[in-house]
Amino acid sequence: MDPKNETSPNAADNQMLNPNAENEDLTLPLESIQPLHKRSASDSLAFVKEPYWHAPSSSAQGRLLGGAAGSSSASHMDPKKLKRLIANRASAQKSRLRRVEYVDKLEKKAEFLEATASLVSPRVTSERKKRMMLLKENAELKQKIEFYDKLLEKQDGEAAMLNIKH
């Protein structure tokens, strides 16, 4: 039976899911989406050889979910599920784009911070050397103060002894 001439409730579903149908705009954006990243082992579809979606094919049913046209065709899929699937894929694509933008932003920030650190590092080293020199000078001055305090006490003691004798 021709899907265009069907009068059952599934006729609208078949027409909507058929890539040759008038409502092609529902699946066309999904089919035209290409992943921006290469799949890794952590991806759920890492070992799938074909993409999850295909461009419109010459087959009458079209394939939305990988595999053979007869085994897993979109014509048997509930329109709500298909709509949700398309929305989920669009959302996932947006999420991947946001993640890529975020990673790029972090990489630029890291480069900026590394450049800043390389500019500031010599100054930090210089300031540490100055601090060490000042600490050393401070310790020397404290020793001199202690020495002169003892010398002053000794001279005061001698002066007091001279005053007592006279």
UniProtKB/TrEMBL annotation:
Q: Which residues form the BZIP domain?
A: 78-141
Q: Could you tell me which Gene3D superfamilies the record lists for this protein?
A: 1.20.5.170
One Gene Ontology biological process: positive regulation of DNA-templated transcription
Record's keyword terms, sorted = Nucleus, Transcription, Transcription regulation
Query: InterPro entries, per this entry?
Result: bZIP (IPR004827), bZIP_RF2 (IPR044759), bZIP_sf (IPR046347), bZIP_transcription_regulators (IPR052483)
Write out the ranges of the annotated region (Disordered). Answer: 1-30, 57-80
Question: SMART domains, per this entry?
Answer: BRLZ
Compositionally biased spans, kind Polar residues: 1-21
One GO cellular component term of this record is: nucleus
Compartments (UniProt record): Nucleus
The UniProt entry, under SUPFAM superfamilies, shows: Leucine zipper domain (SSF57959)
Q: Which CDD domains match?
A: bZIP_plant_RF2
Give the domain of life. Eukaryota
Molecular-function GO terms, alphabetical:
DNA binding; DNA-binding transcription factor activity
Q: Is-annotated flag, keyword Transcription regulation?
A: yes
Q: Name one Pfam family in it.
A: bZIP_1
Listed name of the protein: BZIP domain-containing protein
